[in-house]
Structure formats: C-alpha cells, structure tokens
Amino acid sequence: MNPRIEDYAVIGDEQTAALVGRDGSIDWLCLPRFDSGACFARLLGDEDNGYWRIAPKGAGTCTRRGYRPDTLVLDTEWDTPEGTLRVTDLMPQREKVPDVVRIVEGVSGRVTVRSTLRLRFDHGSIVPWMRRSDGHRVAVAGPDSTWLRSEPHVRTWGEDLGTHSEFTVAEGERVAFVLTWHPSHQPRPRLIDPYKALSSSVRDWRHWSGRCRYDGPYRDIVVRSLITLKALTYRPTGGIVAAATTSLPEKLGGVRNWDYRYCWLRDSTLTLNVLLAAGYHEEAEAWRDWLLRAVAGSPEDLQIMYGVAGERRLPETELPWLAGFAGSAPVRIGNSAVDQLQLDVYGEVMDSLWLARQSGLSARPHMWALQCALIDFLDEQWRQPDEGLWEVRGGRRQFTHSKVMAWVAVDRAVRTLEEHPELEGDLSGWRALRDEIHAEVCARGYDPERNTFTQYYGSRELDASLLLIPRVGFLPPDDPRVIGTVDAIAADLGEGGFVRRYDTEDPEGPVVDGLPEGEGSFLACSFWLADALYMTGRADEARALFERLAGLVNDVGLLAEEYDAEAGCQLGNFPQAFSHIALVNTALTLFGTEEAG
Q1: What does UniProt give as the signal peptide span (predicted)?
Q2: Which letter does DSSP use for residue 501 in this model?
C-alpha cells in the first residue's frame, strides 16, 4: 500500500529535492535538476522503480521526526526494543554536483540498521550497471552515474538488483552515507565531508531563516512555508518550481495528474509579495530577473510556464511503466498546458513588475519597453477566449478572471505612468482601454440575479479565482458585487469548510475542464476566501478559516495542492509552492504589517 502524500518530508539543495517517507525511505529524487529524470520513483510506482531506505532492521514507520528548527535538515527517530536510532537527512549546497547525506546515529542502546539502495535511472525505468571502485559502489547507466560510500565503511553487498548494508550502532556512534551524482562521462567528483556538510547546512539555513521579518501569530508555519519556497527555488536562475513532483493525483485513482516541476507565471505576483514582505529582497530580485528573462521576446510568444532556466519546450509524455501514486495513472512528464493561451498571465507579469518597481527593486534595461509591448498586445487580444487560470482542457471560453487580469495589466501600466511621468506611454489611450475592459466585465461577467460574478461570460458557474477581485483592486471590498461573490463562492464551492476551484461535477454535460469529475478542495483558494472574508469586514470568520487551514499542514509543516475533507488526506503535487505562498500571504493579511516588520 502507498503511504499518504502527507507522510513525506522534503530535503533539497535549491536545485532539486527529495521526498523522505516516515519509514526512512527516499521515494522520489530527480537528478541533477528538479525536472530531470528520477533515480528514485517508488513514489509513483513500486520498489522496482527505485528507493533508498535506512531504518532499524525489521522496523516500520518512525516513532517521530522533525526538521531541526529553522532548517531543511530532517531528523527521523525510531524507538526499538534494542534502543533508539536517529537518521539525519540533508542535501548540502552543491559546488558542482548534488549529494545526498544520510547520517545514522545511535541515540541509546545498540540497534541493528539496514540500508537498501535500489537505483533506477530515467524515472525508475533503467537498472544501472554496478561496480566497486576505491571504496565506493558506482552505478552507471547512459548519462547518469552515482557514487555511494559510507564513513566508516560498513558491510555492503549486492543482491536482487540492489545495494544492501547491515551494521550496528551503539549510543554515540555514527555512520554517514553519501550518495553523489555526476555525469557518467566525467571523473569522480570531489568528496565532501558529511559532518561538515551537516554543520554548515544547519548554520546556513538558520542564518537565512533569521532574515525573516514576520514575527506574528503562526510564525513557525510561516517560516516553514518560506523555507519550503526557498527549497523549491532553482538557485542558478532564481526560478521557483510549482512543486518538487509530477503526477501526484488531485483525486486518488483519477487522471488529474500533472507535472509541476516547472515555473508558472501565475505565481509571480503572490511570490514576489511574499518574498518582499518577509524581508527577502535578494530572492525577490532573483525571481523578478528570472521572470524578465523568461518572458523576453515577442508578447504573442508569452507562455504560462517555463523550465527552471527559462526553457520553452516542455512536451508532455506518459510513462506507462509507472502505475501512479495509489494507482492514479497516467504518470506524466512535461506539461502540454505550456501551449495554452491564458490572458491572465499578462496581468500577473505586469502586476509583478509594478510591485517590483514600487518596492524599490533595481530597474532593469528594457523592462518598461517590454511592459509597453505586453499592453500593446493585450489591446488587440484581450477580447479573445482563452483556457484560463486553471488550464482547462475542455476548450477556450471568455473566463471572467482572465478579463479581470487583463484589466490589472492595463491598470498597472496606467499607474506606472502616473507615478513616473518621465516614462513614455499612451496614458489617455490606456485609461480608455482600462475603462472599456472594466465595463465589459461588469456587464458580461456578472449575474445580477444572483449578485455574483461568474466563471465565464453568460454562465451560472462560479470560480474561486473571483475571490481575487478585491485583492487586485478591480472593485473595492465593500462593493455589494464583491460581497455577493464571496458569499456565493463560500456557499456553492465550499466543501468540508474549505473551497473547491470550481464545480467539476455537472449533471447536464461535460464540465468546463473537459476531464472526469472529482478533485479535492484547493488550498490556495481556501486561503483566498480567508483573505476575502477579512477584506469584506469578517475578520473573525477569516481567522477561523485560517486556523483550520493551518491545521492541515503535516507533522513537518508541509502542504500539497489540495485536501480531501471526506477522506482527511492531502492531494496533488507536493510540497506545493502555491499553497505555501497563499499561507504566508494570508498570515500577512490577517495579522497586519506591523508583525511583518
């Protein structure tokens, strides 16, 4: 049986990340980047698809686990009849190649330990050739190579296409394992000292966490969310991936399984706001610069997502040899939504660049010229139907949220010109365009009978993205249409005290996304409801909802994309940047800027 999604913790080196289960098994790791092939893919298959487990011999799940405070260093402990064992997992900041460090320590008594390493390159499909070399176990297959060593050396042997070790540790004794990846055509990389790597990782993470300016309620989970965002950052470029995984299902046994190991423009404004408000200007500037590089070029070529270095081609492929998490097939790599038209991303890019300018981030050459080109494109294209924020695969529509964000794009251009008259632009023409978009949305995207904005023009369906209308400034929070929309979404899309994105069950025909029905409550949307409740004067309701949402983090403070209230489990890719971004944003909204410094 598969563990639950929330049974995992994450470790990483800001270029890739691994998921570690409660049983001491690393079941997911892509090397050398977030979007590379996985060498451990048990998460989406079985033991034959690769994993690395270290635990007391014969033991099951751990007794307790947790991150060392303000770090991404994970301690997992088992209490056994023979004594207590601790395994410390980390991925230190790399110089050239990635390392996984696993330090086994006897806490009390004398415990026998088993390590089972089953490497499977290319998403769990290729069994490497194994050999011994200079005290290492070396695995090679195609472009991939790993070197495994232990300090001190312990008895290790090959069996059943795996590498096994067994040894005993007494109180105070330690054995460190280091697994190092490098391109197979290159010589063995320089060895790291695992114990120095541990101490430097703890020091560096605590130094980074200490820069956080937020000191309000729920600080622990806010800092953990910020650490998670840092862990999902691809350090060489500043890009932030949506999640560390692909194909974790939005419904167990379903087909809503997507690859999230890429960078979405939709996350840009909220990410920038979080980083700036929490005091991480360096990371905010790196994200802004990644954004500028990614969107450079012709406005009509703007994509909704890019690779971690700004790659544009992300072809979607199914992997038939992986059964999927809890039998949720297909497993996909790549994401064909990259080719969709989503007009809202123009608003998110313009809003991000406006926020960066307002926050004092250093200007970049040609930034304003790029913004002007985006507005010129929108002037011609904003009336077009699109696939919308949720990347529907059921055909383009006139999504209300997309039009609202087109308004945001033009509004931010107008406000920039008003505040910086030295810049050139068509101020009067853009004001007229802004007014035209606003009038159309209010006329065609609003249902006066029900007093709510709707998912798309002429529909009766609702969409949780409409909760963002007051946040982006399209209408003030006290506008009756905003209040009516918030009430309608809470009533119609509420589920178990949380919020679904939209209705995926339509008895009259296919749902708007063109997929089989069913998914969990979307955590970011639930945080958006808390924000909207607060902005419309219902602070007590907002705080109560935030407390329920905060209670969903797993034992190490992590969130996936969705939550199944009926089954009581998390769903979707993990850990999910959008969920953690929303958590921090809502904490900042509810508990005031004074706590954020």
Answers
A1: none
A2: S
Q: How far is the C-alpha of 397 from the C-alpha of 245, rounded, in Å?
A: 29
Instruction: Enter the DSSP assignment of 496.
Output: T
Domain ranges for the chain = 5-207, 211-595
**SS3 (DSSP) at 346:** helix
CATH class (in words) of the domain with range 5-207: mainly beta
Give the sign of the dihedral formed by CA 452, CA 453, CA 456, CA 458. positive
**Bridge partners (DSSP) listed for residue 126:** 121
Measured between alpha carbons, how far is 555 from 6 in angstroms, rounded to an integer?
8
Note the CATH number of domain 211-595. Answer: 1.50.10.10
Measured CA to CA, the distance from residue 32 to residue 18 in angstroms comes to 11
Could you report the per-residue pLDDT of 271-319, keeping only the tens digit for each?
999 999 999 999 999 999 999 999 988 998 899 999 999 999 999 999 9
- Rounded to whole angstroms, how far apart are CA atoms 492 and 463? 10
Q: How does DSSP classify residue 295?
A: H
| Closest CA relative to residue 464, chosen from 399, 539, 370, 383 | 399
- The predicted-structure confidence for 142-175, as pLDDT tens digits, reads as follows 999 999 999 999 999 999 999 999 999 999 999 9
- Is pTM beyond 0.85 here? yes
**How far apart (Å, rounded) are the C-alpha atoms in residues 182 and 170?**
34
